[in-house]
Amino acid sequence: MNHNVVSIAFVLLVCSTVLAGVSIGQQTAGNTATPADPSGPDGGPSNYELVIDENVGVVDYSVEDGVFVIEFYSDEFKSVTLSAAPDTSSQSGSISFRSVVVEADTRTTVRITASSAVSMWTDDSLEREQAYYIRKQSGFIVDGPWTASDVRDAALGGALGVVVAVLYEAVAAKVGTTERGERVA
């Protein structure tokens, strides 16, 4: 067998082994225990988009012309505070918020004007030092937020694609299955 073909096969084997190791390392990294979020309200729907505390959950939400339409379910009367995401184009400003009371054992629909996201919390969630948010869906096929490891993985995948394409062209030229670059004399 030709020495160049063996070298190319060895490079492909090393690249695939390294990327498999990175993938396995990512799957096992960060397997630390996290505190459990509260379960949804009793007697409500079987699943929630977001659970704010053990009594209040977001059943559904949508965005219509810059207005978030949020449907809550609660198993008791509870005050929920909502805040639209601030405009980040200026150095300082104010954040508007309002409180609504969701009714017991029923769905309550709330509308709030916001450009991209809405934060929400109850007194119980603030005791746990947590507030929650929902945001408008983007038009991307693969939606963020992206982390540094996502960027690294994309770069590795792109580099591997380039390596495979170059190696394919080199092998095809060496074996003679390509007609590109032939001279007619």
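The above is record 1. Record 2 follows with the same two-line structure.
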Amino acid sequence: MEDSKQVASPGSPSDSSPIGDPELALLRERVAELDRLASIGQLTAGILHEIKNPLNFITNYARLSFDLIDEIESITVKFEDHPEYPELIDVLGMLKSNVTRIRENGERAERVILGMLAQTHSGSSNFELTELNTMLEEFTKLAYQGVRSGDKDFVVSLVFQLDPTVGKVLLAPYEFNRVILNLVLNACYAVNERRKKQIDGYKPTITVASQRSDDHIDVKIRDNGDGIPDEVKQKLFTPFFTTKPVGKGTGLGLSLSLQIVNELHKGSLSVESEPGNFTEFTINLPLN
């Protein structure tokens, strides 16, 4: 008895080859890129853990050293009549200032590392009262330094217009800082691409602003890159959509940012752009 076999006609779906499909080929490239980024993420998490331990040691001993300087100052009061007492007080003052800077910058580095480590973990989002302006400044600079590490010719003017009345805001910090990183990295890419065109008088600039109102806070991230055409702007928040070449972006940053702002924080993320002039993303965070 012969096996029955179906022979597909040339026009049947079973004959269609996915290899020749440009959209599927592009999707495969994106998946390969995501797999590469996942591997890098695992390596980065290991490195961050290794850095965190000695950094904790530095900040803890900086705090202890500060307390010891206070004790020394209390002891030196007994030697006020000594001719070198004023010089000793000056030295102790400089030492205390140096230890304070070590502690402050160590704590800042700890915050950044904890924030980056949180990106490697999935799970429930914890909302905390967070110094929003501090987060905006730290993660904007972190994104810029990340771009500059791969292109030493890239220099951008970072302008901060931060409302001092913003204060602490209830948000999921480890998710929200991911939004800031995504938006600033996109802004860096935009101004860097325009810089490469060598336009006379062009100065790459990224402006980060915060403004508190009665019932919400606005965060604006603006760049003076080439802007975004209307037909591209309509697709910006679509997963896997990107205008960057393969290896430069996955097309997931803005769709993820939209989800974090709109769904997790019950706010809104919008974009305005004028081709040839600017692009500005606005995050609206409700205060209730």
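The longest helix spans residues 22-76.
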